[in-house]
Amino acid sequence: MGQGAASFESIRLTPTIGAEVRGLDLSAELDETTTDSLYDALLEHHVLVLRGGPLPPDRLEALGSTFGPLAPAHHTYPNVDGYPSVTVLDTGPGNPPDNAEWHTDLSFRADRPFLSILQPDIRPPVGGDTLFANLFAVHDALMPGLRSDLEGLSAVHDMGSFRNHAYAEGGVELMNERMAEVGSSVHPMIDHHPITERPFLHVNECFTSHVVGLTMPEGRRLLAYLFDLIARPQFQVRVLWEDDVVVLWDNRGTQHYAADDYLPHRRVMQRLIVTSDCREVV
Question: What's this model's pTM, rounded to 2 decimal places?
Fold first, then answer.
């Protein structure tokens, strides 16, 4: 039996971003009314912390599929056997963390992904939190003159630090091959959410490499200022992982940072990405 929308409530975690969803039974199939309400909460809060995990891979895929089509296997990270859409993020002493950078998932793709879902598989005894930033709030905090200038600019997004994996695995040849395979994209620096139409700052320190029309020194100075602004805590929420936590976030207007403060312990997460929003009218 499906679960009705009235059975959960959203409790705001900060004034800017994030809410904890209480009363939602993730073990039950969610009916359309419930998923629509969950979607509305996501648009309002940008990041949702759910309880009732961890979900087995089939339930994780089922949850993601209620929002849209699932992304295929990742170009670098492994996946759960039999579930190519469920990516495994396994870091520790033998595989140091590579995601302690502010980023929006897969922003180097022309069609930015809509939704990400993340849950822990193996947690360190302490540390390994994930921080999320509200890029709508960052946009609104820009000085009006700078905001006006940015509205006319675009930036290049590429595979960023994934070069390190490719080089370690196969040297320059594989790095160039992987860069050609993954490609790059150009996004407006001031973008707009396709549903709410709210403007947000669309750059991130992991994947944004160049400002179109500026020299590299000019672009680096501008991007450095914007990255510093995004890193201010008033725009953020910090999620402390527990065994039963499942987090959903809208990539269209947020970015995140996985704290790498848990070594020499191991941290294993399972992530699923929904490529496009089935509720978006094209």
Answer: 0.91
